[in-house]
């Protein structure tokens, strides 16, 4: 078995460990634990930001 094949097998687990360690409690509270929930929350936040920001610019004539 070559070194690259062993690295490829271990890579997903390593990525998962690094991802878990990179997220603190506040980040997990905002983004959640499930990938689909995270995506929905991010899309909802972006839509909210665009709607609120666009409305403010419209009403303030900026």
UniProtKB/TrEMBL annotation:
Q: Give UniProt keywords alphabetically.
A: Membrane, Transmembrane, Transmembrane helix
Q: Which domain of life is it from?
A: Bacteria
Where does this protein have compositionally biased stretches of type Basic and acidic residues? 1-14
Q: Where is this region: Disordered?
A: 1-21
Bilayer-crossing residues are 39-60
Q: Quote the protein name from its UniProt record.
A: Uncharacterized protein
